[in-house]
Queue: 2 jobs
Job 1
Amino acid sequence: MKIVVCVKYVPDTAAKIKVSPDGKVVDLSDISFVVNPYDEFAVEEALRIKEKAGGEVIVVGAGSEKANSGLRTCLAMGADSAILVQDETLENADSYPIGAVLAAVCREIRPDLILFGKTAIGVDNGQVPAVVAERLGLPQVSVVVKLELQDGKFRAEREIEGAHEIVEGSLPAVFTAQKDLNTPRYASLKGIMAAKKKTIGIRTTQSLGLTAEDLQPRISVVEVTLPPSRPPGKILTGEVPAAVPELVRLLHEEAKII
Amino acid sequence: MSQGILVFIEEREGTVKRSSLEALTTARRLAGVLQEPVTALIVGPGNPAVDLAHHGADTILAARHELLHSYSAEGFSAAVVQAAQKVGPRVILGAAGAMGRDFLPRAAAGMGVGLAQDCTEIRIAEGMQLECVRPIYAGKAFARVRPTLLPAMATLRPNVFALGAPDSARIAETVEFRPDLSADAVRARVAGVQAASGSKVELTEADVVVSGGRGIKGPENFAILQDLADAFGAALGASRAAVDAGWIGHDHQVGQTGKTVSPTLYVACGISGAIQHLAGMSSSKYIVAINKDPEAPIFKLADYGIVGDLFAVVPALTQELKKLKARE
């Protein structure tokens, strides 16, 4: 079983967000980066499938040189090799060009399974897996909480509003991982040492045969702004027997929402 | 020449998702600016129990095909792409629910166009361009974006866009079409649906959310929050601290690595307000905080708050709500 896991290196969830001077992007200098938390579930799932059925786990990233550190973390978890499509312009690219790039890498590898996290925190977009699936002509199942494989077929449970959908189909296919899928392992010291000896293959968009049309932006950013501050609220500090009826009165008479 | 707005309507056994009607109402508003028609697209064997014309459709397009009887991203994506070929819309909208988020990006990729995902504002800008605002970094910032190619696609965050009063004077013609689909183009399909355990009201669709955090102290204490949630008819949420402690399932988690909610009222109980959590609920219309620490960051965001012990405040609030409901 050949498994590709697409991994993004993203700002830590605790990061305080600033806007760049031109007002077009988030200023990511001085921010610590982590492997996208949802991608860790995808890497873990790939490793478990490999441990059970044998095969190879290849992690793939697209972005600036910095993304190497994220791929190295995945290698330390146990992935066999990594590929980085190194291109500064991909850092702020929209889903379509990124999807085109990752699909081109997968087309060369010809994996049985392509795994993603359900969304990359930060851009919160969740579109790249669908672009990859469409470009490769593969089925896709997103927000997966359970995945079973047998004889080239899969049965996946995906989270929808108040329920789980059972999706059945055939491999190869694209899946995106939700938090409940598994509990990701930590890299062991042995894993970290072993990762230093593993290779990260560097590719360029040119070497993948991507055209200008493939890489053309589909979304233009007019501006990025911080949320407006909310006016100070009414905070009641009195005893419970007085404060609670007052809160209910405010919700009923002032806000008129109950 | 691209013209008009195509809206994907999520419909199951006649039931139309509220979020789809929000998208249709929004399409009507944008169509008023463009002076162009609105086409509502339904996919599958069913017929909506609500009249889509009343909510803004000029035409109802029904994609009928036996391969569309159960949901698949491939099949539904192909249906939207082929509907777009028929209608030639300037804009395609849908709700950013589990289904729309899954397959509409695939349809966009199929047409080679861009999609603005999970928008909280939308308008027609100069040059009849679609302009959308979408929260990024789970609401810590907002990006104002424009899809650069036609059709311009966007999905709308549920619960954010107003649902106008239906106009029963409006009528629409229903047009059926059979998309060109072969069995080998649909290789993964929904084989069944299992109701999830836990909350009775879905978090992302709830009008009121009652959430608990570290201050709840243990799994057994979620019962008092459930009582409050029941009194409100609310969904039950939780902070990452409560989920990571194993007190409640991840499907209840609100925040950057959980769900993003936009209810009319969000009641945060024993939640300090880590930036991770605020990210998932700051687009709520009203926020009520109950916390014993007056310095808790959640109070900076709250419209109303009570500084006090939640184990005293929450049951009292439940009783007070029941009294109010009984009076009315």
Job 2
Amino acid sequence: MTDRPAVRREPGSYRDPSGFVFRRDGVLYRQINAVFADDWAAFESSGLHAALVAAGVLVADHPVPIDLASEPGAVAVIRPDEVGFISHPFEWSFSQLKDAALLTLRAQAMATEHGMTLRDASAYNVQFHRARPILIDTLSFERTRTGEPWKPYRQFCEHFLAPLALMAHRDGRMGQLLRTWFDGIPLDLASELLPRRTRLSPGLAAHVHLHARAQRRHAGDTDASTRTAPKSVTMSDSRHKALLDHLRRTVEGLHLPAHGTQWADYADQTSYSAAGTASKEAIVQRMLEAVAAEGGRQAWDVGANTGRYSAIAAAAGFEVIALDGDWAAVERDYLKLRAAGETRIMPLLADVADPPPGIGWDNNERASLLQRANADVALSLALVHHLAIGRNVPLRMIAELHARLAPHVIIEWVPKEDPMVHHLLSAREDVFPGYTLEGFRAAFAADFEIVEEAPIEDSRRVLFRMRRRD
Amino acid sequence: MILIFAYIDPGAGSLIIQALIAAVVSVPFFFRNAIRSTLGRLRRKPADGASASFTPEVPGATPTDPE
């Protein structure tokens, strides 16, 4: 044993007494506690476990010796396959959250066929593995008790239905409410924010509006104070199926209104000529291949927009996280990639100028974006002017951020003479005397060594490949 | 009386309203399935004479399923 503890419980894994996730020597394990032994045995013997894994609904796991348990009280320890990158629901676009919701309902449907039920419908139990949603909580299933209602109904409505409805019927940006209410949007709030016309939609009228009213009405209930004691609510199997079917129809019936935002149409209206685009693509590809040759596997395309360069990175052999701060760009990228069956690129809604912070208990339950930085290379194309001029971030700070993101950086310098910078400066004073190519090189020199510098044809922009000084 | 075993709070109002909603939506759900199974039986009979069996729709089988 070393001085440092080699076993560490995952910070977000504390709610459920039936087990938890921990790391031992960096390897991810899940401990199943004695209190859950019977349900765990039923999960195996019912065939549900195997069926879920075979269907790609649940992440695969492997049994390991019980002496790997991290705390007393274990009946089993498993080693789940790890998903590459943990993302949070407020970093998903509308369709990503919708796919996660439908996956959750599908898991519950499969569970009921096996005499079991999903006891937890947290959106955090879904992750994107090879760009498709998958359940990661192997302990989410328990035996059905006859007549029992679906316990995570409220959680499903708060984690999935309310944000999806708000995005579909109010504004695509409403998904960001999940950053504040990370454990689900309160239904009274959702009910208040949704347009009145949604009261005429049977699904939303029932599962959001009436649901919120019922919550308010029964808030102070105890078994003694009410005729309908909550603990005596029963529901037949067929009603249970009907409810789940209705939830699925409600979710499937939600669609975003079709309109773009400033960024979603951006790639179509860049300042590049055809020759400039071809030159930029060729240089980016060459630089990515150079990083791949040094062993790079994970790329973050920062400000990915519609994902043109994410695709080049994937073709060069990288797994790509395609970050963009604009929900419509992420949505469009996700739909395009899903239709194409692309599994190497994960679009992610995040703004590097305001990266998602650590949230929840101790600010540590859900890790910040920078804590999750796992890239070998950061691809920052047509980004620096948005940060430096659009957001007044000094070049030195932009360099420091990149040093936190990845050991290799492929970054595009966009000079003041560029039409896009002209546009940014069109309505404001130019308070950026240091925004020059020399200033850019100097700002990055402290953290990075410039390996390659390539001017883009038919343009005044320059591409840099840099390596962090470690 | 059924005791609810859950580490998450299902919420009193949520339990009550879900039972009510389930009761209401189970009516169209029943008829939809009945119609579907009848149509399925009618369609299958002339084709191969196979015995018509009611195949419930798999809820959640959506175009978004991972392949």
